[in-house]
Write a structure and sequence with these properties.
Elements lengths: L2 H21 L4 E10 L3 H8 L2 H7 L1 H5 L4 E5 L8 E6 L3 E11 L3 E10 L3 E11 L5 E10 L2 H9 L2 H20 L4
Antiparallel strand pairs: 1-7, 2-3, 3-4, 4-5, 5-6, 6-7
């Protein structure tokens, strides 16, 4: 057997092992970050419960100043929707699917580019005894095989989590009146 054949067999075996390992990864992903904001929940709520206000501190909007967006549906609340198209952050839509005013908002997040994905996002507010508010930003969704394979090389929690952390810092600045 030639050296080339041995190398090809080893590469094929490594590829099979990689694909088998990727198949064992979880079928869903979840990213969550929390931040304490020195402002009452009634001051934070309008910044998370309404899409136009959300886009004032949205870290993805800030990544591309040329992002194109459009609002449709209700002006606020359930049915409110924002579509975007960007060379930097892709294209997709975000729609409010549920709200518990002053406490939480649930959203459907659909990506079209750079890859198709359908996830859920939520902001939850927890008033603190000292008048501050803890804000929790969560995103979760299915992990198809391609996502699982990418997850072998890219840590989704770290990648998206950094953006969530930046966004929550932006939110803090607005809510605390430092922006």
């Amino acid at each position: 057997m030639s050296n080339v054949s041995i190398v090809l067999i080893c590469l094929g075996a490594a590829l099979v092992l990689l694909l088998a390992y990727a198949a064992t990864r979880p079928d869903e992903f979840r990213v969550e970050r929390r931040l304490r904001i020195a402002a009452p929940a009634d001051k934070v709520w309008p910044l998370v419960g309404e899409l136009r206000a959300f886009n004032r501190w949205n870290p993805y909007e800030r990544k591309d100043p040329l992002i194109q967006g459009a609002y449709t549906g209700a002006a606020s609340g359930v049915g409110s929707r924002c579509d975007w198209d960007s060379k930097e952050v892709g294209s997709g839509s975000l729609e409010i699917t549920g709200q518990q005013p002053g406490r939480a908002v649930q959203m459907k997040l659909d990506f079209v580019k750079p890859f198709e994905a359908h996830n859920q996002a939520e902001f939850a507010l927890q008033p603190m005894a000292d008048g501050a508010t803890e804000v929790r930003w969560t995103m979760h969704g299915p992990a198809n095989f391609i996502s699982k394979l990418m997850g072998v090389f890219i840590d989704m929690d770290k990648m998206v989590g950094r953006d969530f952390e930046a966004g929550l810092q932006n939110l803090r600045q607005l809510a605390e009146g430092k922006a």
